Amino acid sequence: MPQTAQPRASHYINGAFVEDTAGEPIAVIYPADGSTIAHLHAATPAVVEQALAASQAALPAWRAMTGTERGRILRRAADLIRDRNRDLSVLETLDTGKPLQETLVADAASGADALEYLGGLAGSLTGEHIQLGDDFAYTIREPLGICVGIGAWNYPTQIACWKAAPALACGNVMIFKPSETTPLGALKLAEILTEAGLPDGVFNVVQGMGAVGAALVGDARVDKVSLTGSVPTGRKVYAAAAAGIKHVTMELGGKSPLVIFEDADLENAVSATINANFYSSGQICSNGTRVFVHKALKHAFLDCLAARVGTAVIGDPLDEATNFGPMATEAQGQIVLDYIAKGVAEGARLVLGGTRLDRPGCYIAPTIFADVTDQMTIAREEIFGPVLSVLDFDDEAEVLARANATAFGLAAGVFTRDLARAHRVAAGFEAGTCWINTYNLTPVEMPFGGVKASGVGRENAKAAIEHYSQLKTVYVGMGDVEAPY
Ligand SMILES: NC(=O)C1=CN([C@@H]2O[C@H](COP(=O)(O)OP(=O)(O)OC[C@H]3O[C@@H](n4cnc5c(N)ncnc54)[C@H](O)[C@@H]3O)[C@@H](O)[C@H]2O)C=CC1
C-alpha cells in the first residue's frame, strides 16, 4: 500500500512551518519499496537567514528563564513523545526503513529519555564558589548561544533529541539540519516542542544537503556545532568550525572491536554479536563489526551465530514481526555490496548471506564472514551495513593490540567470565564507549562518544552539559587594591 508522510512544509522556523519552493527538491523515499512519501525543498539562503535571525531573537529570553522552567518544557515534550510513540515510530520507519519492532523502542522513546533526563538536570546547573582568603571567586555556567545540530540518516529522531535536549537545557537555542535522506522526524520534534510550550525560535529545523549545513557552520552568529556523521564530513565540519573558533561535538564513524574470550557465555556472546551487527540492518556507528573470537571457541561460535542469524525475520518493516529491514538507501546498499565483493575477493570465507534479496527495496541478507584478517578491507573500513567479520585470536595482549590498531575509537566490547580480565581489557581499549558482557546499550544516563577519529565530546548524561555550556569566572575583591606605584 503506498504510504504518504508529507509534512506541512519543509522547514520549521520561529514556531511555524516555512516553505520556499525555490530550494532544491528533496524526495523522501520509503526504503522498503522505493516509493516517494514526501516532497521537500532544501533551504535557500533566505531560509537559512530566517532561521539564524529567529534563533538570535529567541536566545535572550530563553537563556534568561530559570533552568527549572526550561526543564519543565522539555519534560512535557518527553511526555508528548511517549504518548505519540506509535505514530512517531511509524514515521521513523517510513523515513529510514528500520523495522517498526525497533523504532517502537529505540528512536522516539530514546529521544524522550534525553528530553526527560536533561530537562531534569536543567534546574540544577550551577557553578562553584572558590574561597581565596578574604577574597573569593565564583563561576557561572552560561549557555554557548546559537547551536547548530547536523544529523545522520540512521537515527534521525534520536539524533535530533540527543542534540536538542542538552542544548536547550543549558539555555542555548538550536538550528537542526537533518540528513537530507531522513528529514521528517525532526519536524515532528519541533512541532511537539512548540506544543510543550517552547518559545518560538528556540528550536528550528532547516532541510538541505551538505551545503546548507556548511552555510550554518560558517555563519559568524553560530557558537557551536554538533555533528553526527561520517569521519570525512567530520573533518570538513570541524575545520570550518575551527575557522570561527566555535565549540564542537563530533559523533563520527567507527570500526569497533568485540572481543570474545574462550570462557565467554556462548549464547550471550552470540546475542550481543547479533545486536552489535544486525540491528538497524547494521547501520549503527558503534557496531562491533570486528568480532575477535578465541580460537578455542571459534567453531562453536560460528555454528551458533549462523544458526541464529538464519532465523532473522526479513520483510516489511511495518509488520511488527519483522526484525530485519532494508538499507536506508539504494546508494548505501551499493556501498555495502561492494564491500562484500571485496571481502570475497580478498579471501574471507562467506559463512552466511552476502547477497541482495530479490524484492523491492534494497535488502541485503545478514552477512557473516569468517577467517578475516586484519589487513582485509572489510576489517579496516566502516561498512555501515549488515556485514560482520569474525577474526581469530590466541592471547589477550595480542587481541588488544589488534583491536586498537585502527584510526577509529568509538566503541569496544569484551565477553569473558573472568572479571579481572574484563576490566583490564576495557581499560586497554582505545575507545570512548566500552561494554563488558553486553553490547550497544546506550541509556541516556551514560556518556556516549568516541576517541581518535571517531569524535570529540560526549552526548547524554551529565557529560553533555559540559559540551553545551561554558564557565564564566568572577573574582571578587573584598579589600583594598594594592598596586606597585
Ligand atoms: N558516532 C555517532 O554517534 C554516529 C555516527 N554516525 C556516522 O554517520 C555516518 C553515516 O551517516 P551519513 O548521513 O551518511 O553521514 P554524512 O557524513 O554523509 O552526513 C552527515 C550530515 O552532515 C551533513 N553534511 C555533509 N557535508 C557537510 C558539510 N560540508 N558541512 C556541514 N554538513 C555537512 C549531511 O547533509 C548530513 O546531514 C557513518 O559514518 C556513521 O558511522 C552515524 C550515527 C551515529
UniProtKB/TrEMBL annotation:
Pfam families: Aldedh. It comes from the Bacteria. GO terms for molecular function: betaine-aldehyde dehydrogenase (NAD+) activity. PROSITE patterns: ALDEHYDE_DEHYDR_CYS (PS00070), ALDEHYDE_DEHYDR_GLU (PS00687). Residues 18-474 form the Aldehyde dehydrogenase domain. Keywords: Metal-binding, NAD, Oxidation, Oxidoreductase, Potassium. InterPro entries: Ald_DH/histidinol_DH (IPR016161), Ald_DH_C (IPR016163), Ald_DH_CS_CYS (IPR016160), Ald_DH_CS_GLU (IPR029510), Ald_DH_N (IPR016162), Aldehyde_DH_dom (IPR015590), BADH (IPR011264). The keyword Transmembrane does not apply. Gene3D superfamilies: Aldehyde Dehydrogenase, Chain A, domain 1 (3.40.605.10), Aldehyde Dehydrogenase, Chain A, domain 2 (3.40.309.10). Its EC number is 1.2.1.8. SUPFAM superfamilies: ALDH-like. The active site is at E251. PANTHER family: ALDEHYDE DEHYDROGENASE-RELATED (PTHR11699). Belongs to the aldehyde dehydrogenase family. This is Betaine-aldehyde dehydrogenase.
